[in-house]
Design brief:
With 733 residues, this protein is an alpha/beta fold. It is built from 27 helices and 15 strands. The strands form four sheets. The protein has a six-stranded mixed sheet with strand order 9-12-13-6-14-15. It has a four-stranded antiparallel sheet with strand order 5-4-7-8, with no helix packed on it. Strands 1-3-2 form a three-stranded antiparallel sheet. The longest helix has 53 residues, at 191-243. It is rod-shaped and about 150 Å long.
Length: 733
């Protein structure tokens, strides 16, 4: 699973930018609950007043508070106010730091004044009596020294703090701010305008933060999607480049259907998870940690609720993972099976219809389809429990927070806005852990996909270029097999044994033998689809294993046993081996391959379209186009792997005649089943059970090779055999 992070290392600078953007987004997201709390507590409940020191205060109240301050505090108190017609106006109103310091310094003095006023309102006696009872009347006495007066104030504050500790800090702050609001109104200030202004300013800040958060979220989402798409593109490119180097051994190991699934579904899975991981998985812990920090700063005293919520989520998601994870791992294999069966059915559709096997194949597809559906339904049904249970947990947590907070609000240790902010932060923390838990389910599934992709990329290819491989530039085409033996990987016996012959330029070497004797295997060794087990193959005296595969295959024109065409046009297919071939070159190649006639009959000629796999041309036409493609390449070595079997005898003869006239300087190797195709070859190799049991011309083999004689007599009449007796060997006509 951690291998997936390797795919992102080339994008580290963009990922770093995404992290920065996500931190900004998280900070914006976490700031909004604070502003919501301020709107409720300060904007609504406190009329827009944030600090306990009044902005405007009447003269008598100003002096009353000053009388309750220490000597040092009195000096500071006088310094923060300016007198305007019996009204004192705060001169540090725009300095938030100074106002907070003033709040901390004069809080107890203001609180003392609030307590005195309450006692005055409740008392039945006059203010002087109340003041005397509390020891306050003596504070204004001229007979007291500054030290004695300050000491008395400290003692009174200690007693007041003991009383106030029973109602909580929130209630105390509310009392102080209520006094500030009362004085602001009494001193002629417009309290409604102040509240309105505060709500507009705070709401404007929330709107600005929200817009910034939206912009940052869009940018991070765009970059995440771009990185994910790039990872997918690079993986597809790597897998494709790797697969095209595979030999038949590697193809058999994976199967075509599995390689298609790995190149599409698995890579798509990695791309999707990469995008979501950069966008959400990185954001979740940032938001969660930030939420915890903000919760601790609220001082709500309900942090244990978050712990309960997180533990409940972890237990529930862990249970889901335990149930669903084994099925997730099986799902990709079942997708392979569906692709395999689908591909077989679509490829062999004509055979299925010919043998009336539609019902059987439908049942076979239905089995693998139902198997995949059953697995997907199981995982989906398990995962459907996640959202309702998560909603139940989150709503239950909200109810628990409200229930606990209600008691704390009633006790005066919490405000309503703080409760609202705590609920929001808790939901953010819970959602962050939920996202992490969901990804803990998705990441293993993506890990399975990564493992399947890495299995392809990490597969050791059987045939590789040597470290000091050289380019094959000027090639004459002299091909030699020097005591070559070959055994398929993992096999116990050789398929080919002690193959030794020379194919010269300007000559035709034919290979014939019974089915399964190793003819196709032999010619597949020439372009290094496999490497020999023993001996060596040389071109112009150079061991082909010392040459680069690209330069070697550049000199070879291979026509496979089964004609393969690609979607496009006839011209694009003929230029497949030589992109810069001129119109005259491809036309001449088509004429040699006897394909000009049917091409000219098409309305668009060489620009006529070819469907995928050449499904819109006949087998003989497909074969002739495959031959023309090899001829247009103009290689030094031609290899025809039973390429004339789909042609009628007349076309076969005409093609071989034209071929002999136009490729006289090249080495021609023909694998054939029909004797008539190779009668006039310069050299005929007879294979039997992987060994050369005969070598020579047709006439020589008819005199010396029993296997060749049996093949010839099974295909030609005695009259045809007699007609060919005595003809000169080595003719290409």
């Amino acid at each position: 699973m951690f291998k997936m992070f390797r795919y992102m290392k080339n994008q580290w600078y963009w990922i770093l930018l995404i992290i920065v953007l996500l931190v900004v987004q998280a900070q914006c997201d976490l700031s909004l609950p604070e502003y919501t709390s301020k709107i409720i507590d300060t904007g609504i409940q406190n009329h827009g007043i944030e600090y306990g020191v009044p902005e405007r205060i009447r003269k008598e109240e100003y002096e009353a508070i000053a009388n309750l301050l220490t000597t040092k505090e009195q000096e500071d108190w006088a310094g923060i106010y300016d007198e305007q017609r019996d009204i004192y106006v705060l001169n540090i109103a725009d300095d938030k730091t100074a106002r907070q310091q003033a709040d901390d310094e004069f809080r107890m003095g203001i609180l003392t004044r609030v307590s005195v006023k309450r006692m005055q309102e409740e008392a039945t006696n006059n203010a002087e009596t109340v003041g005397n009872e509390n020891g306050l009347g003596m504070l204004g006495s001229d007979g007291l020294s500054a030290e004695m007066r300050d000491q008395m104030i400290e003692e009174l504050r200690d007693k007041l703090e003991e009383q106030m500790n029973q109602v909580g800090d929130t209630m105390i702050q509310s009392m102080v701010i209520s006094y500030a609001a009362e004085e602001y109104r009494a001193a002629g200030g417009d309290l409604d305008a102040l509240q309105h202004r505060y709500l507009l300013v705070t709401g404007g800040k929330m709107l600005a933060i929200t817009l910034l958060m939206v912009a940052v979220a869009i940018m991070s989402g765009f970059l995440s999607a771009r990185i994910g798409a790039r990872i997918g593109m690079e993986l597809r490119d790597k897998v494709f480049r790797k697969v095209v180097t595979f030999t038949n051994r590697e193809m058999d190991k994976f199967s075509t259907a599995s390689l298609i699934t790995r190149s599409t579904n698995d890579i798509q899975q990695v791309q999707m998870v990469s995008t979501m991981m950069l966008r959400m998985l990185i954001y979740a812990p940032i938001l969660g940690v930030g939420g915890v920090i903000h919760v601790l700063n609220t001082g709500a005293g309900m942090e244990w609720i978050i712990l309960v919520a997180v533990v409940a989520i972890l237990l529930f998601v862990g249970l889901l993972m335990l149930i669903a994870m084994p099925k997730f791992k099986l799902m990709q294999e079942k997708v392979d099976n569906v692709n395999l069966v689908s591909r077989e059915i679509l490829t062999g559709l004509m055979v299925i219809r010919a043998f009336v096997r539609e019902d059987t194949e439908e049942k076979r597809f239905d089995e693998v389809n139902r198997d995949l559906t059953k697995t997907m339904l199981f995982t989906n049904r398990v995962m459907t429990f996640m959202m309702p249970v998560m909603m139940l947990l989150m709503n239950g947590i909200s109810v628990l927070i409200v229930w606990v907070a209600a008691n704390r609000i009633d006790a005066g240790v919490m405000q309503v806005g703080t409760m609202t902010a705590f609920i929001t932060y808790t939901m953010q923390i819970v959602m962050a852990f939920l996202v992490i838990c969901v990804f803990s389910i998705m990441l293993p599934r993506a890990g399975v996909a990564v493992g399947r992709i890495e299995e392809v990329l990490g597969t050791e290819v059987l045939v590789n270029d040597a470290k000091d491989a050289e380019e094959l530039k000027k090639c004459q085409g002299l091909l030699q097999f020097q005591h070559v033996s070959f055994r398929y990987p993992g096999a116990e016996e050789d398929v080919l044994e002690d193959i030794d012959f020379t194919a010269r330029p300007g000559e035709t070497t034919a290979i014939i033998g019974s089915t399964g004797c190793g003819k196709s295997t032999l010619i597949h060794l020439i372009p290094r689809f496999y490497d020999v087990t023993e001996g060596k193959i040389t071109i112009d005296g150079k061991d082909i294993r010392t040459l680069t595969q690209a330069s070697l295959r550049e000199q070879i024109g291979l026509v496979p046993q089964k004609g393969v065409l690609f979607s496009g046009t006839i011209a694009s297919n003929l230029r497949f081996g030589k992109e810069d071939a001129t119109d005259e070159e491809i036309k001449k190649a088509a004429q040699i391959a006897q394909a000009e006639e049917f091409i000219s009959e098409k309305s668009e000629g060489y620009e006529s379209s070819i469907s995928q796999g050449g499904s819109n041309v006949s087998g003989g036409q497909k074969q002739r186009l495959s031959i023309a493609r090899a001829i247009a390449k103009n290689p030094r070595i031609y290899i025809f792997d039973d390429s004339f079997s789909a042609l009628d005898f007349k076309t076969d003869a005409a093609l071989r005649k034209a071929l002999g006239e136009n490729v006289q300087s090249s080495t021609v190797i023909i694998v054939a089943q029909r004797i008539s195709t190779i009668l006039h070859a310069n050299q005929i190799l007879v294979l039997d059970d992987g060994k050369i049991v005969g070598k020579g011309t047709h006439q020589e083999l008819m005199n010396s090779c029993d296997v060749y004689q049996q093949i010839a007599r099974s295909q030609l009449s005695e009259q045809e055999l007699n007609q060919n007796q005595g003809k000169e060997a080595g003719s290409n006509e």
